[in-house]
Design goal:
The protein is mainly alpha-helical. The chain is built from 2 helices and no strands.
């Protein structure tokens, strides 16, 4: 009986780990949104640095 319980426990743990590895559509959509937001932030920072550079500012970091 001990081996049956151990085997069942190992099978359940294996299924739990396998289920965590697969990405669902909502997780993929969330990652896409995160990447898009990061891209927008980077573009805004680049634009700010370009404006400061064109204006001749000493500190071009935004």
């Amino acid at each position: 009986m001990k081996y049956v319980k151990t085997t069942l426990l190992m099978m359940l743990l294996g299924l739990a780990v396998a289920g965590c590895e697969q990405k669902g559509p909502f997780e993929e959509a969330g990652e896409s949104i995160d990447e898009a937001a990061e891209d927008v932030g980077n573009a805004a920072e680049d634009a700010c640095e370009d404006v400061k550079d064109a204006a001749g500012a000493e500190d071009t970091d935004c």
